[in-house]
Amino acid sequence: MRDFTVSDVFPDVKHIRDPLGVHMTLLLGRERALLFDAGYGVLDFHAFIRGITDLPLTLVLSHGHHDHALGAMHFPSSLMLPQDLPVFREYTGRREREKIAVTARLGSEARENYLSASIHEPEKLDAAVFELGGLSVQVIRTPGHTPGSIALYVPKQRLLLLGDNWNPQTWVFFPESLDVRTYSQSFRSLMELPFQTALAPHAEAPLNRASLVCFAQGLNETGFANAKPARIRGYEHIPVKAFEPAPGAMLVFRA
Ligand SMILES: [Zn+2]
Fold first, then answer.
1. Which residue from 26, 68, 209, 218 lies 20 to 30 Å from 57 (Cα-Cα)?
2. For residue 176, what pLDDT is reported?
3. What fold does the segment set 5-254 form as a domain?
4. Ligand 1 mean position, distance from CA 164 (Å)
5. Beta strands of the chain (E only): which ranges?
């Protein structure tokens, strides 16, 4: 299995790729560090982070889905909006872990450890701002992809951490997802921030503001009405529709 790989977006911002492909972001202040998301957890992400920094660390989960939250099994604690606790409980359970163990081709001992590892339920995220020492981080509530989804904004770098609010393929079709119009309202509110650069969990490279503003403009009734039925691998049982609010970026929502 591949190890984690790190790319330095700014000197104090690292976008880290999990062995199974999702990305997490590490923010380094003078006094504290903040980690946004924990990945799938098939390797010990906490040990990996400790190889980068020994600053006091806060783990914040963007939402409760498996590819962002399961890695919390390696950390003593995490923070998340309580609206996503039911999502977290469902997606960090044995059924999801068994699927991931197959994808990761875990050997029998690693598989057993992965399936049986305990994971602390996230504590309630109620801070609006984290001060890391020369680096502040704002929490933005963005209900849509899930009820308790958030994004983070780092004013110093004019950097937006999108969570699953945007990806090359943005998914708003889960049973726990809110209506596509609620999602769109949350996404448009992110565009009011003066960010210049953004990072998404399922994209390797940083994104520029213009491409996301273009996507926001495409989130409208004409787009919803012209969306075509689609099939998403692994979720064929859910009727979905899809369209491109901006060229090359797909939005998939419940039909
Ligand atoms: Zn998600």
1. 209
2. 98
3. Metallo-beta-lactamase; Chain A (3.60.15)
4. 5
5. 5-10, 13-17, 23-28, 33-36, 57-60, 79-80, 123-124, 129-131, 136-141, 150-154, 159-161, 169-172, 197-199, 207-208, 228-230, 240-246, 249-254
